[in-house]
């Protein structure tokens, strides 16, 4: 993992992005340069087209989810995503080539080079997602511990990180309860440091169930770090592996003395400027869709087109969120607030569609313009549920230290849920966002939101 602008990214992901972008740029340049002096006039146009197309391909591939690492995506699903990205990218490549003056020789070469590069990138995207080549570059991880906590770390790595290789579990001296298989426990032949060096370990995750005196060999862990082996605690492990702050494994000291939670006037100014610019642009681009949605809501059922509801925002202040009405007007006729469920029978037919593709959220762009919300942030919740969850879930109020968002880290990472356990899971993503939010992370979330809308992931 590499940390860029406070956000953890796989080293292999960065290499794949660089390879794809470099391939597109070089393809447009090399084909033109192969023509020799007669193509000198085309080189500046080829360079600008290659850079522009490479940038657009990064956005398209990211929005299509082609850079996401997942175990459960089938080859058919990857091919479908690649095909969708190709159908968007090819017209772009053709359009860029048409910007080159017709008087420039060999202009058609740019079309062939760009389209060939795009096809190669798409084939490579599918191949990279399903090949086993990456097993040779896996990160070797030693888990220090053999109890229930260590077992949960191992399960996380096996399910969420395809680039991690668990070399084994090194039991702590005072651990009395073993939860992992005996075959996976390393029988030490020397100290922890010697074992880690002998196995060629890249990282040690400290996951001890018991931390009484003598359980933590600080000198040996320091030696490991001196020899170039990364040593992380369990809270940091979950933060970088799952992009969550696991509230079951953090304490106030870790949150206070660790890095992150940087607000500041400059960050606030940049985020507000970004919100104003892009929310205005999105309103203009989505206005035809909003008009059709308003008409569909009006025709299907009696009642208002828009739905207003009190929500909790920055620093606990309340405001009225605006959405397209997707439920019957008598959805809460008993006056008792309740979470919307995945297959809620109160949702209308039109409402089910606009919720699935997130069209019902578009009116919240007016909340963004008014400064009550941001494009990206934790989803605003109703005061009734906030009061209840604040008493039940540790650190729940921390999510109100930033403006709520139209979309957020929890929305693109976790499917829709309505239970207390779901609220805890989403809070852990929200805490990660509050701790590490930057403009870079906001852009990634917006790109993943596009992928969520296109694939219907987490449909409500």
UniProtKB/TrEMBL annotation:
Residues 271-454 form the Bacterial sugar transferase domain. It is found in: Membrane. The chain crosses the membrane at residues 12-34, 46-67, 79-97, 109-128, 276-297. It is a multi-pass membrane protein. Pfam families: Bac_transf (PF02397), CoA_binding_3 (PF13727). Keywords: Membrane, Transferase, Transmembrane, Transmembrane helix. It comes from the Bacteria. Belongs to the bacterial sugar transferase family. This is TIGR03013 family XrtA/PEP-CTERM system glycosyltransferase. The lineage of its organism: Bacteria, Pseudomonadati, Pseudomonadota, Betaproteobacteria, Burkholderiales.
